[in-house]
């Protein structure tokens, strides 16, 4: 039998809990969850930046930018 039965999974879970303890597993879960949340946040920010770069620029926008750049210099 190549598949895992429910008993294999239960025995594996018991061994993992005995080896690491519930507090370490809880901390590991928090760390992994935080890493996934940060990864998703960075992807959303990057998509927002790329969307802003892909927006077409109008002549009004370009002329305002040119005026602002000459005023700053």
From TrEMBL:
MF terms in GO: protein transmembrane transporter activity
One GO cellular component, as annotated: TAT protein transport complex
Subcellular location: Cell membrane
Compositionally biased region (Polar residues): 61-73
Region (Disordered): 50-73
Stated name of the protein: Sec-independent protein translocase protein TatA
Origin organism lineage: Bacteria, Pseudomonadati, Pseudomonadota, Gammaproteobacteria, Moraxellales
Organism for this UniProt entry: Acinetobacter gerneri DSM 14967 = CIP 107464 = MTCC 9824
NCBIfam families: tatAE
Family assignment from sequence similarity: Belongs to the TatA/E family.
Assembly: The Tat system comprises two distinct complexes: a TatABC complex, containing multiple copies of TatA, TatB and TatC subunits, and a separate TatA complex, containing only TatA subunits. Substrates initially bind to the TatABC complex, which probably triggers association of the separate TatA complex to form the active translocon.
Signal peptide: none
Keyword terms, alphabetized: Cell membrane, Membrane, Protein transport, Translocation, Transmembrane, Transmembrane helix, Transport
Regions crossing the membrane: 6-22
GO process annotations (BP): protein transport by the Tat complex
Keyword Transferase: no
General function of this protein: Part of the twin-arginine translocation (Tat) system that transports large folded proteins containing a characteristic twin-arginine motif in their signal peptide across membranes. TatA could form the protein-conducting channel of the Tat system.
Membrane-protein topology: Single-pass membrane protein
Keyword Protein transport: yes
